[in-house]
Every structure is written in structure tokens, then in C-alpha cells.
Amino acid sequence: MVPKRxxxxxxxxxxxxGLAGYLKDRRDLRVLGSEEDRTVAExxxxxxxxxxxxxxxxxxxxxxxxxxxxxxxxxxxxxxxxEHRVVSVLPRTSAAVGTLGAxxxxxxxxxxxxxxDGRAELARQVRVAAEVRxxxxxPSEVLSEREVTVLRMMADGWDIGDxxxxxxxxDRTVKNIIYALTDRLxxxxxAHAVAYAVRAGLI
Length: 203
Fold this sequence. Notes:
alpha/beta; Rossmann fold; Sig_transdc_resp-reg_C-effctor; five-stranded parallel sheet
């Protein structure tokens, strides 16, 4: 497999170095050095504190129109994100080795202009990021310990009955746990809930 070329554009050198460190062990991705030609990038990672249209335009200078993952403390409207070909957002407190790598790898497959489903997913990510910022210091505080346990077991392939037996719950209780967290976070189904937990680095 030929690694996909990743351009990093950050508001400060320290942040850029941190992001490069998160991605350095990914065999499917290769971070372009600061002296390399960024026009050959196939995906971009943009990082800043408060993301505005002006900031995004500055971060995208010299980059080709490739899909981008935005790592920031706060995010602009969806229309602004779409204008700058942002296909995924990640709070800076959630950026970690596995999480950032998965987002970047997922962005590679997109053309940089989200369709209706892509915009809906982007809106959900922004909403979750805002909830994390307003009510918790990290994504793990958005979910209870019980919810994270259920998500981990679902990710491992356990079905409702097995989870209920292992945790000494009724099937109905497990279903209610899953329904409550998917409804609260605006997730579509169980698979979407597991994907959210993976992206947030919870499992």
C-alpha cells in the first residue's frame, strides 16, 4: 500500500509537531515535511484554536483542494467548513494517536465536498464537540462508565443478550442504555454509536 500524503497546517509549530507525532506510526499515511511541496498532498489536517473562515483560508494557503480534518477548540458554521473542504472535525482535547489517524484515513476517501449525508455527519461532530467543550473536559465525560462498557462490548461483537447476562442487566435495560446514548448524541444506530466511541478514543 502506498501511503497517502498528508499536509499539516497549524497555527503554531508546537501544535504541528504534536500532530505529526500522532501520525508518524501510521503505515497508510505519510506526513509531508515542512520543506516538501504541499501541493502533492492528498489530505490535509488543519489545526488552530478558534476556527473562523479567515483562519481556515490562511491555513489552507498553498494547499490543493483536498479534503481536510479540522482540529480546533471551536468551529464555525457548517457552510464555512464545507467551503474550505473540511470533512471532519475533532476537538483538540480529543486529538490522540488512534483518533486523529482514523479521521485522516477516513477523509482520504472523500472528495472534499461533503454530500447531504456528509454534511449531516459534520454537523453531528460539531454538535458533539460543542457538548464536550461546554459540559466536559474530555469525550469520556460525555458518556457514563456504564455506557462506555456497553459500547466496548458491542465493539467486541457481543449481542444484547450476552451483554445483559455479563452485566447482570435485563435485555430491556441494555436496549434502553443504547437508545439513551444514541438519542442524546444524535447517532443513527448501534454501529454509529460504536464508531463515535472509536473516533473519540473511548474504546
